[in-house]
Amino acid sequence: MADVLFVFGRFQKRLQSDKTTLIDMHVAVTHVQSALVALKQKPLLGGWQETFQESATETDGDLFLKGIQLSAATKRREQYHLFVTDKRSSAAVCNEIIE
User: Which of 70, 63, 51 is CA-nearest to residue 6?
Assistant: First the structure.
């Protein structure tokens, strides 16, 4: 989500620039669309997702970020969440955000 907002933030700054003309807007929109499509294949270079992937470590099925445990094996009580999954693919979440 942070990477998508970063792309839109840069887009907004470009559109609000005094140098931007109506003709430049088409180029800017095309660039933003291609950047969002590119986020589906690989993370933004120097973005939050890339930083997280480099910093996070996995030990015995648990995810750690700088020594702090981010996930636990059982997060929910099964009896209350029979029809809701907590094992959703992060790629699916990324694609939904980008769409």
Answer: 51
- pLDDT (tens digit per residue) in 31-64: 889 888 888 887 776 676 777 777 777 777 777 8
Strands (E), 1-99: 56-59, 62-65, 68-69
What pLDDT is recorded for position 1? Answer: 81
* pTM exceeds 0.90: no
Q: Report how far residue 64's alpha carbon sits from residue 26's, in angstroms, rounded to the nearest whole number.
A: 43
Contacts of 64 (CB under 8 A, 6+ apart): 56, 57, 58, 70
Contacts of 24 (CB under 8 A, 6+ apart): 14
